[in-house]
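Lab manual, section 2.4: Encoding a predicted structure.

Procedure: take the sequence of the chain (184 residues), apply the prediction step described in section 2.3, and record the output as structure tokens. A sample record is shown.
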Amino acid sequence: MRGGQRKRGAAPTGGSVGSTPAADAAPPAGALRRAGAMTYDALLVVALWLFTLFPMVAITNGAVHGAAVQSLVFLEMYAFFVLFWLYRGQTLGMLAWRLAIETDDGNPITLLRLTLRFFATLLPVLAALAGWRLGGMPAVVLCLLAGVMAHGMIWVDPRRRSFADRLSGTRIVQLPRATSASVE
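Recorded output:
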């Protein structure tokens, strides 16, 4: 099950192959649901980092630092998001908030598209970190404001797409509530 495709009987995401996106499209996700899923996923990523870093700190007696460690935690974050998006169509936070990722054109989601989405989402944060090193606090504030504007596009876009959605050709949709089946 690749590219966010669902098993038979699973909740539809509205972007099945061969259909037009507008014909069976699920409603776009709102800002509060997205923020809830992002918070949930951020907590999970921090837990993953702690699970990785605690043994390293114990083994090295607290000498865990440098580019290798930073690269490791960055790769863990990349793998968390991109692999969940690629194989399930949603992260654990998105699952909890009934959200899913799909392409605008209804085709399966590719690794390249998801990598583009991941870096487009992180671009303001990476720019803020670079701004801190190069220009101090004013540069950080400007970069973070740009990030807020990039994510805030969902309030003005008619299809509620962020900068990362538009750049990668994806969108976040809200899944319907699961209906309980009667037992006979």
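Check your result against the sample. The helical segments are 31-60, 67-87, 92-96, 111-135, 137-152, 163-168.
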